[in-house]
Design a protein that fits this description.
This protein is of the alpha/beta class. It is built from 15 helices and eleven strands. The chain has helices spanning 12-17, 19-29, 43-46, 71-85, 97-105, 123-135, 149-156, 181-194, 208-214, 231-239, 250-257, 271-274, 300-303, 308-321, 331-334; strands at residues 3-7, 33-37, 53-58, 89-92, 110-113, 164-169, 197-201, 223-225, 243-247, 262-265, 281-284. Strand 7 (197-201), helix 9 (208-214) and strand 8 form a beta-alpha-beta unit.
């Protein structure tokens, strides 16, 4: 049976969050599945070594309705493209009537989809309930990115054993989701006082100014940047890191899916959706907010801010209470 999964959300983080359900569908039908996803999901990089993915089809839709799959002509073009692939079954992780009709026009006989016209949902809860209902089995929310072992080992030999290796997620989709870059520089200085470390700056070309501030600071010699790397090239590096510390960004979810322990700062995004699905993620929220009240409207970076001292204290509490150790005699020593 040829199975298609339609996942129209944007961003690497969302793509990672859907992986448990995509993998469960592949397992149920005992065959790799095809994905219809947007290019900025970075699925072609994230899933390059995933044997449960057969094909990645690019969904060319934009916010300005200028994509080749936008509009009426795009509707028919996409349906024609899918019809040529002769899919038997489709799972649509969206309430859009457009994707239902495209699937019908593409001749796909078996269509499973979210309830039509639903406006709001929790990305994790909706995907879990939908997939469990369709497959008749319980599915863990913990995603797993699959990597070729040879790539991991090839990267590992470049990691100095005398150092600790930390993925630093300074990027974010907007300014209200980013902690101050000056705070990250101070944090790295504090870490390096206690344990010589190397920091991998998880940010892209759009973060040129932030990266520039780091490489003009006292920690520049301790850092390497992901700016000029493809996403696929960063995965083995992240896999060999000891820890992720940073904003709620795609790099957080990638790190979690690579089984790296993560400390994530949530300032303007919903913790209940993006911070509670993985056992690898510990969360910090702004002052006067809770995990329940921190949402897309919190605007934490501007209004509440997460102060450096409070971050350090919560960093200590979270990791000592969960007894996570990375060879630094625990974080009691780390921030003593």
């Amino acid at each position: 049976m040829k199975v298609l999964v339609i996942q129209p959300k944007i961003g690497m983080g969302d793509m990672v969050i859907y992986l448990p359900y995509i993998h469960a569908i592949s397992k149920k039908y005992n065959a790799p599945v095809s994905l219809l996803v947007k290019d900025n999901s970075r699925a072609s990089d994230l899933l390059i070594d995933d044997d449960q993915i057969n094909e990645i089809i690019t969904l060319e839709r934009t916010n300005t309705n200028t994509g080749s799959h936008d509009g009426l002509s795009g509707f028919f073009d996409l349906a024609k493209k899918l019809r040529e692939k002769r899919f038997d079954k489709v799972f649509i992780f969206s309430s859009s009537f457009r994707y239902f009709m495209i699937s019908k026009l593409a001749g796909i006989k078996k269509i499973s989809q979210y309830p039509l016209f639903r406006k709001k949902d929790n990305i994790v809860t909706s995907a879990k309930i939908f997939t469990e209902h369709e497959l008749g089995s319980i599915i863990s929310t913990q995603p797993k990115l699959k990597l070729d072992k040879e790539k991991i080992e090839k990267s590992r030999v470049k990691f100095a054993k005398e150092l600790k290796h930390i993925c630093l997620g300074i990027s974010a989709s907007g300014p209200t989701k980013r902690w101050s870059i000056k705070n990250y520089i101070k944090l790295c200085e504090k870490i390096n006082e206690r344990a010589p470390s190397k920091f991998y700056i998880a940010a892209g070309k759009k973060d040129k100014e932030l990266i520039g501030e780091i490489f003009k600071s006292n920690i520049k010699d301790m850092c390497t940047s992901f700016r000029d790397l493809k996403i696929r090239e960063t995965l083995p590096i992240i896999k060999n890191c000891d820890l992720y510390v940073g904003n709620d960004t795609g790099w957080l979810h990638i790190s979690s899916a690579l089984n790296i322990k993560c400390l994530a700062l949530f300032m303007d995004s919903p913790v209940q959706a993006y911070g509670k699905y993985s056992e690898n993620i510990e969360v910090i929220v702004p002052e006067n907010e809770t995990e329940e009240t921190t949402t897309h409207n919190t605007l934490g970076a501007d209004i509440f801010n997460i102060r450096f001292k409070n971050f350090v204290n919560q960093f200590f509490v979270l990791f000592t209470s969960s007894n996570v150790k990375f060879g630094w005699h625990s974080f009691i020593y780390f921030f003593a």
